[in-house]
Amino acid sequence: MASPFTDTDDRILWQRFRQGDEEAFTSLYQRYVRVLYSYGKKLITDDAVVEDLVQDLFIDLWQSRERLADAESPRFYLFRSLRRRIHRACNGRFNERWDLIDEDLHPITLPKETEIIESEQTQKQKDELDAWLKSLPGRQYEVMMLRFYQDFSYSQISQLLTINEQSVRNLVQRAVSKLRQLTISVVISGLFLFLLK
Amino acid sequence: MGYYHYEVTDFLEDQYFKSWVLTPSQESCEFWNNFLLTHPEKAEAVASAKWVLLGIRSEMEEDFPTEGQVTAMLDEIHSRKEATSRWPMRGLWLRLGASLSAAAVVLLAIGWLREPNRHDNHVSYEELLSAVDAPLMEQTNTTTAPILLTLPDSSTILLQPKSSVSYRKDFVRNALREVYLSGEAFFTVTKNRRRPFIVYSNELVTKVLGTSFIVKAFEDARQVEVSVKTGKVSVFPRTDTEVCEGIASPELAGTIITPNQKVLFSREQVQIRKELVDSPEILASAVLPAPLLKFQDMPVSALLGNIEETYGIDIVYDDRLFGQCLLTASFTTESLYEKMELICKGIEASFEVVDGKMVVTGRGCN
C-alpha cells in the first residue's frame, strides 16, 4: 500500500520532531516526500513549483514546530497543508490552470505493465480501463487516488477537499459507475463476437 | 467471507482485497485464486477493481521525484530551515528572501566578472567562459559551412562559420543545461522541463525548456538577436537582476518570444526590443486551424483571427471599426506582410509592427 507506515509510528516521529529532533524530521520527510510530490504533480503540472511548495511546507513545518499541536495523523496533516499551499498558489497565479484541472480531463500517462487476467479480451479491456482512468475529471481522480491509493478515510478526504462526506462518496460512485458502464460494454461486445463465431 | 455479492466498489474498499493486489502474499494469492475459480462471475469485478488499484498506483509512482531530487530538496530544506526562524516570514516571503539572496550572489559574480573593464557593459565570450569553474568542451567552426553538433542530451546545434560554443564537461549531470555561444547558431533543444536549457551569448541570456531557435551574437556586432522557430523562449539581459530569478524560476521569465518573433538586444543601450522575424512562416501544427486561402464576404475579424492563429502572432485592431468589414479574396503564396497589405488595402487601413505585434489602424468601414 501507499503507506507502509502506521499512524502510530508517525505520531512518535511527530512528537520527537516537535521537540526539535532533526532525525525524526528527516524521517518524516523521507517517508512522505515522494507521495506528496506526486500528489502535487497531479494538481500543478510544473515540477519546479511543486518542488518549491513541498520544500516550503517542510521548512515552515520545522520553523513552527513549537507551535504545532499533536497530530492525530501526521500524514493527513502534511497532505492538507500541501493542498492548501497549492490552492493558495493557484488562487494567485495559476488560477486558470486550477480551474482547468477541476473540470477537464486529467493529464495522465498510462501504466504500461499493468497486467490483468490473461484472456483474449484482456487487451481490449485494458485499453478501455486505461481510457476510463484517463477520462476521469480531476476531482474524481483525486478522490479515487486519496481513497484507494493513500487510504484516507472519507471524512479525511472531505476535510482535505473541503466538501462534505456525501459529495466525496458521490464522486467515487460516479467514477466507479463510469467504469461499470465501460466494463458492461466490453462484456457485451465480447459476447457479440462470440455469437458471431 | 461474503465476497460473492461484492461489486467493484466493495472490492476497492476491502483491505484484504487491497493488500492482495498491492502487496500479494502466498496466502492471499491462494485465497483469491480459489475465490475466482469458485465464483467466475466475479472475475470481471475483481479484474476491474484490481486494475483500478494498480492503475492509480503506477500513475502516482510515475510522478515520484527522482532520488536526486529528493536529496536536493532535503539539502535545500536543511539549509533554509534555520534562516528566518526569528521572523514569522513564510511562504512567498521566504521564497522572495531566498531569491533575493540568490540575486545578490549572482550580482556579485557578475560584478566580479565585469571588473576588468568596469566602464564597458560588454561581456565577451572569453569572460563568460572564465567565470565557469568547471572543465569545458569547446567547438569552433572554422570552415565556411555550418556544422551540426549533438549535445549529450541529444539537443542539436547548427553552428555557423566563425562561431564557437562551449559547454561543461559534466553537462549531463548539471542541473541546468548551459551553453556559451559566440557567433550564430540554430538550437534544437530536446524537451526536459526539469532541466532548462540556457544559452549565454554576450550580455544576453536565453532560456528554454524545449524548442528551436536561433541566436546571433558576434563579438563585434552591436546587437544580439534571438529568433524563435518553434516553442517558447525567454530572454533577459545578463545585467538584469531578474536574471538569477529568471534562470532558477520554473516559468519562462523575462521577455518571452514565440514563433515568428525575435528580440534584438542593443548592446549600447542595454535594451531589449521585440520584433517579428523578417519572413514569418505559417506554423506547422496539427492542432491549429488551416490557413484561409479563399474567402468570400468574410468578416475581417475572422480573417485576422485566422492569421493570428496560423502565424502565432498578435494583431491589434479596433474591432468596432474593422470587425464587420467584409472581404473577398484568395491567397496563394503571399508572405505574411503581403497578405496584411492586401487586407489593409481592402479595408483602407495601414499596419505597422510594434513590439512584435501587428497594429492595424484606419478609419474603418460602415
UniProtKB/TrEMBL annotation, chain A:
Keywords: DNA-binding, DNA-directed RNA polymerase, Sigma factor, Transcription, Transcription regulation. One of its GO terms (cellular component) is DNA-directed RNA polymerase complex. The keyword NAD does not apply. It comes from the Bacteria. The keyword DNA-binding applies. Residues 28-90, 132-181 form the RNA polymerase sigma-70 region domain. Belongs to the sigma-70 factor family. ECF subfamily. PANTHER family: RNA POLYMERASE ECF-TYPE SIGMA FACTO (PTHR43133), RNA POLYMERASE SIGMA-70 FACTOR ECF SUBFAMILY (PTHR43133:SF46). This is DNA-directed RNA polymerase sigma-70 factor. It comes from Dyadobacter endophyticus.
TrEMBL record, chain B:
The keyword Transmembrane applies. Residues 293-359 form the Protein FecR C-terminal domain. It holds the Pfam family FecR. The keyword Transmembrane applies. Residues 147-233 form the FecR protein domain. The chain crosses the membrane at residues 92-113. It comes from the Bacteria. InterPro entries: FecR, FecR_C, Ferrdict_sens_TM. Keywords: Membrane, Transmembrane, Transmembrane helix. This is FecR family protein. It comes from Dyadobacter endophyticus.
